[in-house]
Amino acid sequence: MAAIGRAEHVGSLLRPDYLLAARSGYVTGELTAAEFKAVEDRAVREVIALQQDAGCPVVTDGELRRESFQSEFTAAVDGVAGAGLDAWLWGDWHSDIVGDVHVERPRDLAVVGPLRKRRNLAAEEFTFLRSCLGQGSAEGSGPIAKVTLPSPSLFANLWSPEHAAEPYLSLDDFLADVVGVLCDEVRELTRLGCRYIQLDAPHYPLLVDPAWQEFYQHRGWDLDRCLSYGVELDNAVIDAGRPATFGFHLCRGNQQSRWLVSGGYDAIAGGIFGAIDADRLLLEYDDERSGGFDPLRLVPDDKTVVLGLVTTKRPDLETMDALLARVRDASNLIGRERLAVGTQCGFATSLRGNAISIDDERRKLALVVHTAELAFGEV
Question: Which CATH architecture has domain 7-376?
Fold first, then answer.
């Protein structure tokens, strides 16, 4: 665990306004690809500096080059139609801060042909991030560069029986090729020297909701199959990416300070915590929606749990006393030596970030680091 650290954020960070304006200008043709990339590079450098100033031992590029955390898959691969931003955001979203909203699944979202990879998903992101962190990161003496990728079964969202056609007459057929693409990606990342890869899997906690269970059942996957076969696919990607360390992030939806479902990990912990081959479990635990710590009893001794105690959905800061008390409570169920602290989710799952400011984000990252220092004597 010491090789990764005791303080960690999930991955995505807020896009500055000038980056959002540049993306819009690129889409409309006002900026060339080279001009837009220069703006992206500037924004990534700034967000790396923000994390380093906060003392973060694990650093990402904030996913700033992506439309959303999942979108690089369809941006890099042919064979899917209708995969705009709403392809990743549909559902009934809830919030006490900004109000509820319903987003329809795009009608034209469909798998329309064989998946053909045109470029890497995250290899370029990693090489730029590594160059900004310097040689120390590659040698293990500086901040660790983390790359985030989606869990393969998350892309069940793209396939539907109504549009099923060759070569993907079943969801299993489609996801087999999704796994192939992701296995190629993690092999390339490790070849380039990436030491830490995180799979984001928010779809598993959604299964506590009957409506989401019905969504998967319509695709031929009941709850047990979602967990057992889904984790089998995750493990195939993890195996392909060794010797990198792997994190596995589970939350309940995160978009513009909204969430999708409520409920503890109890119903899914047995099928995931002991079965997933990841080294670190990044779990959402910032409020009562997340349930209690009891499921941590099911975490095997060889895994670290990153307690996502600091919310990214609200600007107010948690108190140090409350955070340290939560760490103490969790340590009654899992050894303190296997705990770390972090954020409950990303700050900007897509272009539409949460309802907080970059200054709020900076303070929350520093709070995570300071909590780790006090709770564990190290970060």
Answer: Alpha-Beta Barrel (3.20)
Element (H, E) at 377: none
* Omega before 295 within 30 of 0, i.e. cis: no
Give the domain ranges of the chain: 7-376
Provide the greatest CA pair distance for the chain.
Answer: 57
Distance CA 187, CA 238 (A): 10
Tell me the pTM. Answer: 0.96
Task: Give 138's DSSP letter.
Answer: H
The answer to whether the beta carbons of residues 69 and 350 sit under 8 Å apart is yes
Model pLDDT for residues 168-209, shown as the tens digit of each residue: 999 999 999 999 999 999 999 999 999 999 999 999 999 989
Angle, CA of 361, 333 and 151, to the nearest 5°: 55
Residue with tokens 């909204």: 258
- For residue 262, what are its two tokens? 């409520």
Distance CA 265, CA 297 (A): 11
* Nearest of 58, 55, 143, 53 to residue 370 by alpha carbon: 55
Residues 6+ apart with CB under 8 A from 134: 142
